[in-house]
From TrEMBL:
PANTHER family: RIGHT HANDED BETA HELIX DOMAIN-CONTAINING PROTEIN, SECRETED PROTEIN-RELATED. Residues 20-62 form the DUF1565 domain. Transmembrane segments: none annotated. This is Right handed beta helix domain-containing protein. The lineage of its organism: Bacteria, Pseudomonadati, Bacteroidota, Chitinophagia, Chitinophagales. InterPro entries: Beta_helix (IPR039448), DUF1565 (IPR011459), PbH1 (IPR006626), Pectin_lyas_fold (IPR012334), Pectin_lyase_fold/virulence (IPR011050). Residues 376-546 form the Right handed beta helix domain.
């Protein structure tokens, strides 16, 4: 096969060309391009040296994963041709004339009267397309590809919902769905208030979501029965916990009801009839697409030196890009959007099924040394990630037994609206293993966490984190815990702003005995009800941080001496996890010397938490808990001008004569100008 060869005086590079108007029997030259990226990868595999696949403008719809394995090349890049827009999607186009008005009288009667002329339907059975129903999702459940979703003019539709922008309180519990109920086969039943659910008696595919037991654990489950006489709802399956009532965060909402389609962009699936009913987001639309691919769009396995650049990866049910056993594989300057699961997964989720996150979180909880085969020096940078279903990036790498770092990374990315389907414990970035890094990312607009991590020696730096944890209780924007061997983390120069104070929301959360972090140079500005929470652990070092306008700055407690005492008891979860990493032997004994004597050092008592050189401004209460659980020195609780250039925008920094430099000995100026992503935020707003 003949290929165009470009040669300069110092290096040579083979180029393979792809065009939407090409043909896979062509040569792959600029004048005779191939049709598919997969065929170009196949051609490139036989070429030595550096190979670049240039993709011409257009929408490339794939019905199977584009698989990249090691070829003869020394490096491979797949990029759009200069200045051209390339979309690679896991969808199918739906003819606009397949969108019909609702004519069935019974269905029209179920619609809100003012919506009867606006709701449209697509009959997928007539189109010969099978569609999947909703599936159970939520806390402690596997992370799965989304059901089929509709996208109109690039916008994802959202399930119809009541209430639209809030949740209803759970009423009296008739059947909790606890262990005894499960053993007896009694499904959960709770009471509702008001009359709105009384209108849903004809619904055949009603689902409920919410926080049924604890405010950090969301659920989405089907309904078995609606009893309007007794005002009860019976679930068709069990929640992760039992149903409870009596607390503000224990709430529910209903989805997938044609009766509740009342906002542009809402839809409901009739799985039995294989129809989708929806209210178009715009009056005159030109493009309708249905996500169909449940496997990753791209899979890169067992190879090195691969770059995906200037591509839009979108409209798919599963993962956008999957990597395993890779080195120096980078997603650069791409847009990953409208994805049903995570945008990028580096490392295995479920061992037997490559390309699926699945039940990985629960498996990691049981075996903290899982090796994900995530390789090293892999990552994503300079990219937009938004409208994903179950988080942004799953970032693995490194070896917890040897503490060998991966150096995998997420750098200079904007990550927003990443919990369209799965919420709890589906962060913008999930990070595990050893030695991974998150740098200069803007993370925002999510009901749950920004970063959740496990492992050792990770770095989270220069990030701007706003409006996350918007509906949860007892979660943190940055969160980890329940394993004292997970040490060596650095959290520095991050900006936390506008985290909800409604429930127990934290910016940096060291949960259940977490130990050994270094946290400095961060700005906590209206950062939740408890900006810092140290839950019973030791050896945390907080310094040179700024706290502004919060009811409490730092929470310390001794939970391991009371309600969580079983965690550090003999044969408890801490002992099992410490033994699993051989904590009294090298490399742990050298990296974390205090860990060697963990159980001989009264582990239930918080100690050596050093909190010094920090600035507190407009803070009602600096410490919630006993100050004896921390060492507080050289801090300044200020009540007047601190010396900010703009008090309403701390990121503009301090004046040169700011009082803070005199009042706090050794206080170092913060590199405000390096905090946050450098991508064009205004351009993102238009997408």
């Amino acid at each position: 096969m003949s290929l165009l060869l470009t040669v300069t005086t110092c290096w040579s590079q083979t180029k393979v060309y792809v065009s939407i108007n090409g043909n896979n029997s062509n040569r792959g030259t600029a004048s005779d391009p191939l049709r598919t990226i997969q065929q170009a990868v196949k051609v490139a595999a036989d070429q030595p040296g550096a190979v670049e696949i240039e993709v011409g403008e257009g929408n490339y719809h794939v019905d199977r994963t584009i698989e990249i394995a090691q070829g003869k090349w020394s490096s491979l890049s797949i990029t759009s041709q200069t200045g051209q827009k390339v979309s690679v999607s896991g969808d199918v186009a739906i003819p606009v004339d397949a969108v019909k008005k609702v004519g069935d009288a019974n269905l029209l009667n179920r619609l809100l009267p003012w919506m009867r002329d606006s709701v449209r339907l697509i009959d997928f059975r007539q189109l010969g397309i099978d569609i999947d129903n909703l599936h159970v999702s939520g806390f402690a459940r596997p992370s799965l590809p989304a059901w089929n979703e509709l996208f109109i003019d690039g916008m994802p539709l959202q399930l119809s919902r009541w209430p639209n922008d809030s949740m209803a309180l759970i009423g009296k519990i008739a059947v909790a769905g606890n262990k005894e109920d499960k053993a007896a086969g009694r499904l959960p039943i709770f009471h509702y208030s008001g009359s709105r659910p009384d209108k849903w008696t004809a619904a055949r595919n009603l689902w409920i979501g919410g926080y049924f037991g604890w405010g950090y654990a969301d659920d989405l489950i089907p309904v078995k029965a609606l009893d309007v006489a007794n005002k009860t709802i019976q679930a068709a399956t069990y929640s992760a916990y039992e149903f409870m009532t009596g607390t503000d965060f224990r709430r529910w909402y209903a989805v997938n009801l044609v009766e509740e389609i009342d906002r542009p962009g809402e839809y409901a699936i009739d799985a039995e009839e294989e129809k989708i009913y929806f209210y178009p987001p715009v009056d005159n639309f030109s493009e309708v697409r249905l996500s169909v691919l449940s496997q990753p769009v791209f899979s890169v396995m067992g190879c090195a030196n691969v770059t995906l650049k200037n591509l839009t990866i979108e409209n798919t049910r599963g993962i956008g890009v999957y990597m395993e056993r890779t080195e120096n594989v980078v997603v650069d300057s791409c847009t990953l959007r409208n994805i049903g699961n995570v945008a990028l997964c580096i490392g295995r989720g479920v061992d037997s099924i490559p390309g699926l996150v699945g039940d990985f979180a629960n498996r990691l909880y049981e075996d903290v040394t899982i090796y994900r085969h995530a390789g090293k020096n892999n990552g994503i940078k300079n990219s937009y990630i938004y409208n994903t279903g179950a988080g942004g990036v799953s970032l693995g790498g490194g070896n917890r037994l040897t503490l060998k770092p991966a150096n995998n990374f997420v750098e200079n990315c904007i990550i927003r609206r990443y919990n369209r389907i799965e919420k709890s414990y589906r962060p913008a970035v999930w990070m595990d293993g050893v030695g991974c890094r998150i740098t200069r990312c803007d993370i925002s607009d999510a009901p749950s966490m920004a970063v959740l991590f496990h492992g050792n020696n990770h770095i989270i730096e220069y990030c701007r984190i706003t409006n996350v944890c918007s509906e949860v209780d007892d979660q943190g924007a940055i969160y980890y815990g329940r394993d004292p061997s997970e040490q060596g983390h650095i959290i520095r120069y991050n900006y936390f702003k506008d985290l909800s104070p409604r429930h127990r929301v934290t910016a940096t959360y060291h949960d259940d005995g977490a130990c050994g972090s270094e946290v400095y140079g961060n700005i906590y500005y209206r950062a939740g009800s408890l900006p810092v929470l140290i839950g019973g652990g030791s050896d945390h070092h907080y310094y040179n941080n700024i706290f502004i306008e919060s009811p409490v700055a730092i929470h310390l407690d001794n939970r391991l001496q009371n309600w969580a005492a079983q965690m550090c008891a003999p044969d408890g979860i801490f002992e099992k996890r410490l033994k699993s990493v051989n904590y009294q032997q090298s490399p742990y004994s050298k990296a974390y010397p205090k860990l060697v004597n963990y159980f001989n050092d009264n582990p239930a008592l918080p100690k050596r938490n050093r909190i010094h050189g920090n600035l507190f401004y407009r803070i009602k209460k600096v410490v919630n808990g006993e100050t004896k659980w921390g060492i507080f020195t050289n801090n300044w609780v200020a009540k007047y001008d601190l010396g900010f250039v703009d008090p309403e925008d701390p990121l503009k920094g301090f004046r040169e004569d700011a009082p803070v430099f005199k009042r706090i000995k050794g206080f170092q100026d913060i590199p405000f100008d390096k905090i946050g992503c450098t991508l064009n935020v205004e351009a993102f707003q238009l997408q």
